[in-house]
Automatic annotation (TrEMBL):
Keywords: Lyase, Metal-binding. Residues 30-264 form the HpcH/HpaI aldolase/citrate lyase domain. The keyword Lyase applies. This is 2,4-dihydroxyhept-2-ene-1,7-dioic acid aldolase. Gene3D superfamilies: Phosphoenolpyruvate-binding domains (3.20.20.60). One of its GO terms (molecular function) is metal ion binding. InterPro entries: Aldolase/citrate-lyase_domain (IPR005000), HpcH-HpaI_aldolase (IPR050251), Pyrv/PenolPyrv_kinase-like_dom (IPR015813), Pyrv_kinase-like_dom_sf (IPR040442). It comes from Sphingobium yanoikuyae (Sphingomonas yanoikuyae). GO terms for cellular component: cytoplasm.
Length: 285
């Protein structure tokens, strides 16, 4: 599937490369600028910014570049759009994942996922229902059926969209990435069970800010206890061969993060182009 892969983040991983990304505001101008940025993906930030689905739909349209599509001969986006939704894992939310997917994003990141049940819900919310007994039935999909806008945005027929709009790596052909944020001691304690029992989690993004708060060292990202907690997350992800991400990548820590096996590196847009170039050079491509 690598040659036909639409999701650039998954494509990078399948090629043995780390993926580089940044958070993005949900507005047209930023989205248009991000399309020309050197990222594999961007994450529209809707947890701490307003949850604006209409604005997200507009932003996604501004990411379309007809010239790039014509030159590449592929409907795969030059930069893959994902969304971080507002609802915490404990809220067991479903409609926000459904709505951002229906606009056309290629993945959903859920903050504050701490238990197996919460992770299961995050994956199920991104999957369409299948007949019982069908292959890859679990987690049972609960995403409502409304594919028209997403299929049009992806440049696919609705049947082709249905075929590709499943969760990777549970479905190897799937183009949707389900990410969970691990940002509390409880989440760390439960992470081994989560990754053992919930097929379909493709990314664990460490929430350093909230994790450092919970440990009593707010935003002290280099504090030994914070670093040790992050080390535990990384080791658990490596054990289960699940990509681990860092949202505060910069020129000072990118080499260490790559050396520790981080596969999803996010940096602030204002200074990220240099970090992406540095990271790709360190990664050997």
């Amino acid at each position: 599937m690598t040659d036909n892969r639409l999701n650039g983040v998954i494509r990078a991983w399948e090629q043995g490369k780390p993926a580089f990304a940044a958070f993005s505001k949900v507005d047209k101008l930023t989205a248009q600028e991000m399309t020309d940025a050197p990222y594999d993906g961007i994450v529209f930030e809707m947890e701490h910014n307003p949850y604006d689905v209409g604005g997200l739909g507009d932003a996604l349209q501004y990411m379309l570049n007809r010239k790039m599509i014509a030159e590449s001969g592929s409907v795969a986006p030059s930069v893959t759009p994902l969304a971080r939704i507002p609802a915490n894992g404990a809220e067991m939310n479903q409609f926000q994942a459904k709505q951002v997917l229906d606009r056309g994003v290629y993945g959903v990141i859920t903050p504050h996922v701490s238990t197996v049940e919460q992770a299961w819900n995050a994956v199920a919310s991104c999957r369409y229902a299948k007949p019982k007994g069908a292959a890859l039935y679990e987690p049972k999909g609960i995403r409502g059926d409304g594919p028209a806008t997403a299929a049009r945005y992806w440049g696919l027929s609705q049947p082709d969209y249905y075929a590709k709009a499943d969760v990777w790596p549970l479905a190897p052909h799937g183009e949707l990435l389900v990410g969970m944020m691990c940002e509390s001691p409880e989440a760390i304690d439960n992470l081994d069970d989560i990754l053992s029992d919930v097929p379909g989690i493709g990314l664990v993004l460490i929430g350093e800010g909230d994790l450092s708060q919970a440990l009593g060292y707010p935003r002290q990202y280099e504090h030994p206890e914070v670093l040790d907690a992050m080390r535990r997350i990384v080791e658990t992800c490596h054990k289960h061969k699940v990509a681990v991400g860092n949202p505060h990548t910069n020129a000072k820590n990118v080499e260490r993060l790559l050396g520790e096996g981080y596969k999803f590196l996010m940096s602030a847009p204002s200074r990220s182009y240099g970090v992406v170039g540095q990271g790709r050079e360190l990664a050997g491509y």
